[in-house]
Structures are given as C-alpha cells and as structure tokens.
Amino acid sequence: MNPEQAQRILQAGKDKGADFVEIFEEETRHAAVSFKDRKVESASAGTDYGIGIRLLFGTEVLYAHTSKDDEEHLLRLIEALAVSRGNMPGIVGLGPDDRIAPLTGIERANRHLITLDPRKVGQERKLEMLRRADETARRFSEKITQVQTRAADTVSDILICNSDGLWLTDTRTRSRFHVSVTAGGGGEIFTAGESPGSQRGFEFFEGLDVEKHAHEAAERAVRMLAAGYASGGKMPVVMGNGFGGVIFHEACGHLLETEGVRRKASVFADKIGEQIAHPEVTAVDDGLIENAWGSIHVDDEGRAPQKTTLIENGVLKTYLSDRVGAQETGVSLSGSARRESYQYAPVSRMRNTYIAAGRHTPEAVIASVEDGLYAKKLGGGSVNPATGEFNFAVEEGYRIRGGKVMEAVRGATLIGKGPEILPRISMVANDLELAAGICGASSGSVPVTVGQPTLRVDSILVGGR
C-alpha cells in the first residue's frame, strides 16, 4: 500500500466520526518440516496476506479484516463498520480534528540481527537436522518407542499506519525447533520434549545443538518412565528454572494485562501500589531482550517496546498496556499491543515475562525444604484467566527429603491460584533461565517467552495418582 492510498483510507475512517483509524497490512511466509517414525510426516510452506482496519470511537473498538487490497473494497469495509455502529455513511465533520496528520516514515533500529534469511534456505537443510535429532534420541535407549521432530520458521513483513501520522514498516523473523521423545515399557509410556526458539533466521538452526536437546528429552523420558507415582497433598514445592515460569505467565501475567484490568476481570484491578507478592518477588515483562523468542522491534500499534517492571519487591507497580487499555486504566503505554495476524485487533499481551533472579543459590533453595516436591520441569496445564486458578502437570519431578533431591516421581500436578501463590514464594535463586512458548488470548496466538529462577513456594496443593 502506498502512502497516498493509505491517507485516503484513513481519512475515510475519520469522516465516519472515528477518533482514531489504523491500518495493519501483513505478508507472512511460513515454512515447516516434521519428521516422525523415521520418515517425513509433513512439509509445508505458504504465504498469508491481509489487511486489518481498526476504528476507535473513544475506547470502543471496531475491527474488520480482508485479504483484498483494492481501495474501493477497503473503503466499503470502513463504511460497513460505521453502519454497524449506527453511523450513517457520509461526512460527519470537517473540523481540524477530523483531518488526519500527514503520514511520516519512522525508522526503527533492528535490535535482532538476522544473518541468514530462511526464505533463501531450502527445506532439505532442516530435514538433515531433524534426522540427526531422531537418531540421537533413538540411540539413547532401546526403550525409546517414538521420536517426533519439527523445524519451523516465519518471516513477516508488516506495515502499520494510522490517523496520528504514523507510517512504519517492520520485518519479523522467528525460528523454532521441537523434539518429542516417547519411552515405553511394562505397559506404560512417558513423553518428554524440548522446544527452543528465537527471533533469528536460519542461523538459529545452524547454531543449535539438536543432539543435546534430543538427548535431554530421551533421558528424561526414560528416567520418568521408571519413576514411581507421586503422592498428593499440600507441601512445599521447589519449582525449577526456565519453563517453570509458565505458571506465573498464565496464572498471574494475564491478570496484569489492561485488557482484563480495564474490564474489571482481574483480581489485580485497582491494586497498583499494593503488596501482592512476597518481598522476594520481582516480576518483569521485557520486549527488548536480544533475539529472544518473545521480543519485538515495535508492538502492533507501532510503539517501541520497553522493559516493564510489573512487580517490584512484591509491590504491584503497573500493568501491560495497549492504546485502549492505557486510556481506560490511566497507566503509561508499555509497547505491549500484540496480535497473531491481520485477522485480529491488537490488545495488551505479554512478551518476555519472568520472575527476576534473586539472592539465593539453587542448592540453598532445595536445602530449605525438609519434605516436599522438586518440580524440575513443567508440562501442559489449564488456567482460568479470570481468576488465575491453574492446574499444571509436572513433566519431571523428584521428592525432596531432608533438604536433598531424592527419587524421581511422576504423575504430579500443581494446583492453585496465582494471586494466592505469589505471597508464598519465599526464596528466589540466582539461576534465571528463559524458555519459548506460544500464548493464546483474545488477539490470537503470539510468541512469548516465560522464565524464572529456581524458587520455593512454601505451600501448594500437589495432586498425585
């Protein structure tokens, strides 16, 4: 879309009485190869294109999207949006506030250097890497019954322009590897996996130690297959670093997004300045971490990201905001407006969200527990986003006795409410680690990073067999 065409479309939205008009144009190329049972399961590549148009009347949001780019069609979309709100077609105002600002190009520094564009690399090079991972996992043990590997990348070219005069382009490149290993024996199976990802091009795959990830998944699957079942009850739990941060992300992070706060659908609404967590807890959402999976150059409203401290020494400091959320809650803009694609209007979403490193060693955290559970790695789970109630499976768990990690246990689940768990995190170690994930919410599924150091929760309900 050229600036002259965009200007006419934006002005048409203002002519219908909108306070703010935005165009989001996207072209995304995606490619992936999956390898399973020692053969190619699937190989896919394609391109998605579309345009989304957003009209804001105060904080009321109207949104439409299309895969057609002709100007007349886009103008009809705006008219249909206005009619759906009850505005009749036609000019509603010609004052100075109804004229859009001239579109001005803005350059954004690319903090995430891409050295090998995946669009220029064939799928065959991915397949060679997947075969190596498959062979490594199978060599580990005769108990390995199935290995599935996948390599995927996306490159998105984005244009964001709006009635405030913004004209901005962005290129977003992400790559991710996944290996899932299943061990079986005695009529039972156990599956373990690793899924690293980065905001990089094909150089991410070239520098990735796929044998290491495959070996770790195979080793965990075999070890946990032989483990006894966990016993349930309330007990102290040491949560491992890295993907353990998914509980904070799901059970607390969503409650700190203005999309829920502005609707009073969060228990943390109107609690800025209050103590909501143990003083040991500082939680951050950072969109600036170099090459991190959840990092962004700009958010999906065209704003620069920032490092946002959400909780500091247990005190709630702010929320993650988009344009509408910031206006309704009164917090500053944090560059957190995100969407899966042109098919969604942006809302406040997390980027790289983690509990910050603390002052203890991991060994000291474990040693502080006389009798409890070490949840070294978490698996899948479910969360009620309105209340923070969660239920997460422990993929790799061990019993702690006398301050020492003892026998492996399987079948454990962690059950609780995020807002109730935060005050019980009494020790935080210094071994912060991040892990890639995908988060689904009202604006679709977006890449996010979760993370935390090893930490102690004084009491949590553990479900067992």
Question: How many domains, in number, for the residues?
Answer: 3
Our Rg estimate from Cα atoms comes to 24 Å
Protein structure class: alpha+beta
**Shape verdict:** globular
Helix coverage percent:
10-25%
Number of helices: 10
Q: How many β-strand runs?
A: 24
Terminal Cα separation, in Å? 58 Å
Oligomer: single chain
**How much strand?**
35-45%
Low-confidence parts: 89-96
Mean pLDDT: 94
How would you describe the overall organization of this protein?
Helix content is 20%, strand content 41%. The chain is of the alpha+beta class and 465 residues long. The radius of gyration is 24 Å and the shape is globular. A hairpin with a 2-residue loop joins strand 18 and strand 19. Residues 89-96 have low confidence and may be disordered. Helix 1 (3-15) runs parallel beside helix 2 (71-85). It starts with a helix and ends with a strand. The chain has three domains: 3-33 and 44-105, no CATH class; 118-155 and 173-223, PmbA/TldD fold, CATH 3.30.2290.10; 233-463, no CATH class. The strands form four sheets. Strands 1, 2, 3, 4, 5, 6, 7 and 8 form an eight-stranded mixed β-sheet that branches. A six-stranded mixed β-sheet has the order 13-12-11-16-23-22. A five-stranded mixed β-barrel has the order 10-17-18-20-24. The protein has ten helices and 24 strands.
